[in-house]
Design a protein that fits this description.
It is built from five helices and no strands. It is mainly α. Keywords: Membrane, Transmembrane, Transmembrane helix.
């Protein structure tokens, strides 16, 4: 005897078995299933923080170089690095002694002078 409900039931079981093999999860309403424990999407570090850290590192490198070799030798190095290309011009502009770099180099010299 052919029962259409039984055929529908068997088709549903086959579909559920196929979905289960593909990794689909089944959750009962009101329970904490797989979707509750999934990790949230992480946006990563904000761009402004990355740019700020790069700027801070550049200031520290400039201040360390200025502290190590002094302002006269630093200026001489910048004069030698100047060229006609856009990269050289941008590099010399970025590496110029600014008030923050000068102050930072002085503070480093003062603090490190205590230990030396």
């Amino acid at each position: 005897m052919h029962d259409p409900q039984y055929e529908e039931f068997r088709d549903r079981l086959a579909r559920l078995d196929r979905m289960h093999r593909q990794g689909y999860g089944f959750e009962a309403p009101g329970t904490l299933g797989r979707s509750f424990y999934r990790r949230r999407a992480h946006d990563g570090v904000p761009v402004w923080r990355v740019i700020g850290m790069i700027a801070l590192c550049m200031l520290m490198v400039k201040a360390l170089i200025l502290m190590q070799i002094g302002p006269d030798a630093y200026g001489a190095h910048l004069d030698r690095a100047a060229g006609d290309g856009i990269v050289q011009k941008v590099t010399v502009f970025v590496m110029q002694i600014d008030p923050i770099t000068d102050w930072l180099a002085g503070e480093m010299r003062r603090v490190l002078g205590l230990f030396g």
